[in-house]
Design goal:
heterodimer, A: two-stranded antiparallel sheet, 11 helices, 71% helix, 4% strand, globular, B: Rossmann fold, six-stranded mixed beta sheet, 10 helices
């Protein structure tokens, strides 16, 4: 039982990071009906941004290691950088194809993904780089043999705060209302005076910033950064978004948590070799049994 | 002074000329009807005026601005609002939020300040909310404010579409078959509503409608389109007896 609880805690930690990435997939899908396959690579770029920002801060004499405040600065900086990247990806790669068939957009997304991976390899080298220790690990909670480290607590807490902030933005602000309107009917929203381009840009910035936050949080635990590090988390978060019902924000969060727990459990009780396999097993099961996902509503095509 | 003036408006889809050099004048405070057989190009005119399609030629003048070719959100900001033949509400939003989407651009405010919160944006939020409630009240559907638009009865959805269009405080309203699917009593209510929009809201209205009695009863001027061309234009009595109109509707057999 105690082992199970420990696995659950570990799973929720990974799951909350997946949830943050999945939110980006699901928001962009909700608004453009596009699976943004470059999203995992935005996550990777977010990790590099956080790495460089912590490096610069250290060089500038800031006591980065062991200081939550500076870790926060690194995270916010990475979110801003990734947000900017997301803005330009949409502006340069997707917007010119706004009226093109959706398949064209999907293939472009894969192209952007490969482009970002190769740019990263060219610019940062293919050797893994290592994060400075942003926050020294310590156990803050122990019940029996179940432990929760401060890093794990931070990952979960920050994810929850960001998810709640997103909820407030989407459901309580004018831009959120505009996002929901554009997602439901882009043309009608434009006719109500909403600048659809601005709303779409904003959605990309928001989703990309969340991916960078996830990257920084994961780096607390897993300090290695490589140009292809975004591929697996990207795919898993994509599956999480599908599992929850793509386009649905609650679904993405729930799907992310389920994905994290499932993955950790399969490693804990099965074999670590199945770690990545379980994700796709889940994807296949969802598509067979409930293609609209846990929270998804049946899709109706609008003319 | 004209609220809307269309000159030489033309739209081609491939070889088909959907709208063929249309000239139309909507006077300030006027109610102009646009009728014609199915496929005559009426809704295309609306789509051109509201910016959904760029025209191939011609101009759309609103207060000395030529809006031809402008994107829909800019056209909306110049005071043109519309409803749709097939209702296009934001089904997953509440009735109130549907109207607030329309109200947002009038009240202004940047999206960034909306996120950062602060007093100013909270005031703004309250203002759009109050304004939206007021519109729902005026149209007589405020008791549906917190229901999802998709769950509302058909007649209420039609009214909500008008409310959403009004929220942006437009000067010109384009109504695309507002009486479509309505029973006689609902149609009578709609007629009252349209008169109120003209008198109380000081709107200028361009109306597409198939219900002839409705159009003839309330419009001051009627334009008749057939195959994208204006075949007649004038007051209802003249239109009713115009041989070209009768022919377009009933075919050559009349002769």
């Amino acid at each position: 039982m105690q082992e199970f609880l420990q696995q659950l805690v570990n799973g929720l930690v990974w799951g909350s990071a997946y949830a943050l990435i999945a939110l980006g997939y699901t928001m962009v899908y909700g608004i453009l009906r596009l699976i943004n396959f470059a999203h995992g690579d935005v996550y990777m770029m977010g990790a590099y941004s956080a790495l460089f920002i912590s490096g610069w801060l250290t060089a500038a004499g800031a006591p980065v290691a062991h200081s939550p405040v500076w870790a926060m600065v690194a995270m916010l900086g990475a979110m801003a950088a990734a947000g900017l990247l997301g803005f330009f990806i949409e502006r340069l790669a997707y917007r010119p194809l706004r009226t093109a068939p959706r398949l064209t957009l999907l293939i472009t997304a894969i192209g952007v993904s490969l482009f970002l991976q190769n740019i990263a390899q060219l610019a940062f080298g293919s050797e893994p780089r290592s994060f400075p220790e942003l926050i020294a690990s310590s156990t803050i909670l122990q019940v029996g043999s179940v432990t929760l480290s401060n890093q794990q607590a931070i990952i979960i807490a920050v994810s929850v705060i960001l998810a709640l902030a997103l909820q407030v933005i989407v459901h309580r602000t004018s831009i959120g209302r505009a996002m929901r309107a554009v997602s439901y009917d882009r043309e009608a929203a434009a006719l109500m005076g909403i600048s659809v381009n601005r709303v779409i840009s904003f959605t990309f910035v928001l989703g990309s910033a969340l991916a960078a936050a996830a990257a920084t949080l994961i780096a607390l635990n897993n300090p290695l950064v490589t140009p292809t590090m975004g591929v697996q988390p990207g795919l898993k978060a994509f599956v999480a978004a599908v599992l929850g019902g793509i386009g649905n924000i609650y679904g993405a969060m729930a799907g992310g948590l389920v994905m994290g727990v499932a993955e950790v459990m399969i490693v804990g009780y099965g074999s670590s070799g199945y770690r990545d396999g379980i994700v796709f097993a889940i994807l296949i099961i969802v598509l067979l049994v409930r293609p609209t996902g846990l929270f998804g509503s049946p899709v109706t095509e609008r003319a | 002074m004209n609220a809307l003036e269309i000159r030489g408006l033309t739209k081609r889809f491939g070889g088909l000329v959907a709208v063929d050099s249309l000239d139309l004048v909507l006077p300030e405070g006027g109610l102009v009807g646009l009728i014609g057989p199915n496929g005559a190009g009426k809704t295309t005119v609306f789509n051109l005026v509201s910016g959904l399609y760029p025209p191939d030629a011609g101009s759309i003048l609103v207060r000395d601005h030529d809006l031809a070719g402008h994107p829909p959100h800019e056209v909306a900001r110049h005071g043109i609002a519309r409803t749709f033949q097939n209702i296009r509400l934001f089904g997953s939003l509440t009735a109130l939020d549907n109207v607030r989407v329309g109200a947002h651009m009038v009240c202004g405010g940047s999206y960034l300040s909306a996120i950062l919160g602060g007093r100013q944006s909270r005031d703004l939020d309250r203002r759009t909310r109050e304004q939206a409630m007021q519109v729902l009240h005026d149209i007589g559907i405020e008791r549906y404010a917190n229901e999802l638009a998709s769950s509302l009865p058909y007649g209420v959805q039609r009214k909500l579409e008008i409310a959403r269009a009004l929220a942006s405080s437009p000067s010109v309203l384009l109504l695309d078959e507002p009486a479509c699917g309505m029973n006689p009593q609902e149609t009578a209510e709609l007629r009252d509503l349209v008169s109120r929009l003209l008198q109380e809201w000081k709107l200028s209205i361009l109306l597409i409608e198939h219900d002839m009695r409705f159009v003839m009863g309330i419009c001051q001027t009627i334009y008749v389109l057939d195959y994208g061309k204006t075949i007649a234009c004038g007051p209802p009595e003249a239109i009713r007896n115009d041989p070209a109109v009768i022919e377009a509707y009933l075919g050559d057999a009349v002769h």
